[in-house]
Write a structure and sequence with these properties.
Layout: E1 9-12, E2 15-18, E3 21-22, H1 23-30, E4 34-38, H2 39-53, E5 58-63, H3 70-78, E6 82-85, H4 88-96, E7 104-106, H5 113-122, E8 126-129, H6 132-144, E9 149-156, E10 178-179, H7 180-192, E11 196-202, H8 213-231, E12 238-240, H9 257-270, E13 277-280, H10 284-287, E14 291-301, E15 308-311, H11 320-324, E16 330-332, E17 341-346, E18 355-362, E19 369-372, E20 393-398, E21 401-406, H12 411-415
Parallel strand pairs: 4-20, 5-6, 5-13, 6-7, 7-8, 8-9, 9-10, 9-11, 11-12, 12-13, 15-17
Antiparallel strand pairs: 1-2, 2-3, 4-14, 14-15, 14-19, 16-19, 17-18, 20-21
Helix pairs in contact: 2-9, 5-6, 7-8, 8-9
This protein binds ligand LLP.
């Protein structure tokens, strides 16, 4: 039996396997909560991007925020990817993982001067600038260092990506990007500023997008702008079309990356822009369904109104359900034959918002190991130490081989940075 989302995750007999590894076995050695990712699933998710872009100048910049473990970054660096970063911390991770700064684009509305300087010294490919104010500061920082910052403006095309309000970014009411009407004037300003070289244009309209239409609308708006920018004598070398492609959590049917890109390229070519380098910044679609979060069932609390299945993973380990009311699949790693009951799967954190799944039909017993599906993206990277809970360990499987790619945090790790007052 195959589960939604990934062909790499399937039951063999009664047991859930990721690649060739029986997931339950991992928890005996490595404990729970435990993130487990498949290297093969990540590379398989990347393949349609690379295939669709073959034969033209392009760069797939993996969005580090989705999953920033060094081994994940190493996997994508070795596969030829660049990276989309939003902090100097993420830049440091990329470099530590063997990624090349010359393939890094630096996004984000609030880059500090220190971050700008660090990225300039490292030699990043491009700053995705989000405001005129940022542009002026970047010009000062670059000039001060005797360097030139290659930039693209992140333009806000004002299209509705049809996704959750917290993860939709291309609307006028969002904090992101330069308004479409102001873009041309801002490009002219950029072209005149010292220490700034216009390299491209950038656009990212949101996340977990399951339709092609919003991308095509945004692209039309971007191409209109490119034409007016070039008519003003400013060359636009590359077009960065952002990330945002959705995945199947339950019954969503997002297009494949190959289909999305084919349609985008067809429009780009039809409008005579085929010579430009094309960048994408996918995060979730490369890693989301390549990972699961394993958690042990501690106690069952049947009740008159609700049945609670208390597990040892919590909102600090996986915030998406608490923060967005996001649905994430939950299955038992060992199929049981008795009739299922309806459970709210909740964690030990002292908040009513601490749930991982509501009204789930499951056959469970205390001691079982559940797998929260599609947890490879925005799982570990959004985790916290709330309730002084150490962060989970992370494993990467590759066929039948298992690698520990992050050790479990200890209490000592957590209190190390605190300081007592003098007596
Ligand atoms: N580029 C930029 C500028 C972004 O802001 C993002 C995501 C991406 C690329 C990658 O988008 P993706 O391909 O992963 O959709 N924490 C939320 C998602 C926030 C996305 C923020 N920006 C969640 O768990 O659903």
């Amino acid at each position: 039996m195959t589960l939604p989302g990934s062909p790499f995750l399937a039951y063999r007999g009664q047991d859930l396997f990721l690649d060739d590894v029986r997931l339950r076995d991992l928890t005996q050695q490595h404990g729970t909560p435990l993130y487990v990712y498949s290297k093969r699933a990540m590379l398989a998710a990347l393949a349609p991007y690379q295939k669709a872009l073959q034969g033209r100048a392009h760069l797939v910049c993996y969005a580090v925020k989705a999953n920033s473990n060094l081994a994940v970054l190493q996997t994508f660096a070795q596969a030829g990817c660049g990276f989309d970063i939003v902090s100097e911390g993420e830049l440091a991770r990329v470099l530590a993982a063997g990624g090349s700064a010359s393939k890094v684009v630096f996004s984000g509305v609030g880059k500090t001067r220190s971050e700008m300087a660090t990225a300039l010294k490292a030699g990043v490919k491009c700053f995705n600038v989000e405001s005129t104010a940022e542009l002026e500061v970047l010009s000062q920082v670059a000039s001060g260092l005797g360097q030139t910052a290659h930039i693209s403006l992140r333009v806000n095309p004002d299209v509705d990506a049809g996704t959750h309000p917290y993860i939709s970014t291309g609307l006028k009411g969002n904090k992101f990007g330069v308004a479409h009407e102001e873009a041309l004037a801002t490009y002219k300003r950029a072209a005149a500023l010292p220490g700034i070289h216009v390299a491209g244009i950038d656009c990212h309209i949101g996340s977990q997008i399951t339709e092609i239409a919003p991308y095509l609308d945004a692209l039309d708006r971007v191409l209109d702008l490119v034409e007016s920018i070039e008519a003003a004598g400013i060359t636009v070398h590359h077009m960065d079309l952002g990330g945002g492609l959705g995945i199947t959590y339950t019954d969503e049917t997002p297009p494949g990356a190959d289909e999305l890109i084919a349609q985008l390229l067809a429009k780009i070519d039809a409008r005579g822009h085929g010579q430009r380098e094309i960048l994408f910044e996918p995060g979730r679609s490369l890693v989301g369904n390549a990972g699961v979060l394993l958690t042990e069932v501690m106690f069952l609390k049947p009740g008159s109104q609700k049945n609670f299945c208390v597990v040892d993973a919590a909102m600090n380990d996986l915030m998406r359900p608490a923060l967005y009311e996001a649905y994430m699949g939950i299955v038992n790693t060992q199929l049981r034959t008795d009739a299922p009951a309806t459970w709210d799967v909740v964690g030990p954190v002292c908040e009513s918002g601490d749930w991982l799944g509501r009204d789930r039909s499951l056959t469970v017993q205390a001691g079982d190991v559940l797998a929260v599906l599609s947890a490879g993206a925005y799982g570990m990277t959004m985790s916290s130490n709330y309730n002084t809970r150490g962060r989970a360990a992370e494993l990467m499987v590759d066929g039948a081989t298992v690698h520990v790619i992050r050790s479990r945090e200890t209490v000592q790790d957590l209190i190390r940075h605190d300081h007592l007052l003098p007596n």
